[in-house]
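<instruction>
Derive structure tokens from the sequence
<data>
Labelled lines for chain and fold:
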Amino acid sequence: MIKNLITKLVDVRDDNELKGLMWATTYGFFIMFSYYILRAVRDEISSADRGNLQILWTAVFFVMLVAVPAYSWAASRWSRGVFVPLANRFFIACLVGFWLCLALLPEAARPWIDRVFYVWTSVFALFVVTVFWGFMADCFSSAQARRLFAFIAVGSSVGGMLGSSVTALLAEILPSFSLLLIACVPLELASWCAKVLDRRFATGNVRVAGEAKRAIGGNAWSGMKAVFASPYLLGIAGFIALMTFVSTMLYFQQANLIADAFSDRGVRTAFFAKIDLAVNILTVIFQVYLTARIVKWLGVGLTLAIVPIVTMTGFVALGLYPTLAILVVVQVIYRAGRYGLTKPAREMLWTVLDREDKYKAKPFLDAAVYRGGDLASGWIYTGLAAIGLSIGAIALVAAPVAGMWAILGWKLGRREELLAREQGDTE
């Protein structure tokens, strides 16, 4: 019955591809289940400590400068079947450590533990998700990605919905640090899914026998060097930088408006979790019914341009009516579109690249460039606010940037389609 349902929704070509699809979807489910338990806790800290938010983002960036080479070194040393579960279990150990600190240290230490946790969660979010999608780009070809990535992303969204629901239910009942231990369970289950997928269902771009079992090779800096040597990768870097600017403007506006609206920390955490739940419900609708069809009808380029164009319109609306209600509507539509349309399409850009780019250049872009963009954008927002610009005025400043983001996304998608045709990776 499950097979019949999936084959009605997804263009699956054989039983092995179906099994690989199911394990990949389950892996994504557990990853995002864990992350969305932690996300609301992190976002509540951003409202409680909003005066230091740009400083926290600066700390995230510098931590990334250390974390990216360390990750690349691990990818050079071990095969993906070893270092992918190893990365997840490293973060599990960190969560247990945070729980012990919050449970055993005095209340006076809480603000600093919160700040360290905020930085850590930002690193966790990018690395765990980046490792997941790099793994997917390694297992599935460009042609398969166009058919399967939207459904794989459904698993991530459903996991996010469950994580948000658990957090919304428990945040006002349990101490927030208890949620850290709960998040460890799905993260460990994700590690087992990764091992099964690596062992039994490697398909797509892993064409040479035994290649998936070998370490990627290179060194800690090869991913960074590859980015500066490739116009295509530099284009992806620009796409991520513009995306982070748009996201940061909305994030800072959200932190300020929600802090002004709610004074209780538990209520704020629950409100953030409800926003996350709404985002994930809408995202699933996109991924199940629309994303694969839109990619097929419009191509990767126009798919990448849709959300930036809608966001540009949302910034104009927020500029004219800078209220919490409008902000929530814009944020929900933006995030649902970004996860439901832009995310699967952006991950398709990596399927035409070699394995070292997927495991090393990708983390450099998704981590260092992403957080570098956050850092620069955070200080830009702070500077605009310091010179007296209101939330509405800042939204109007951000609108043309979203327009440039749309143009670059369209050009990158066209380039990916050309590379796929050159490699004969079409159906």
The mean pLDDT is 83. The radius of gyration is 20 Å. DSSP finds 13 helices and no strands in the chain.
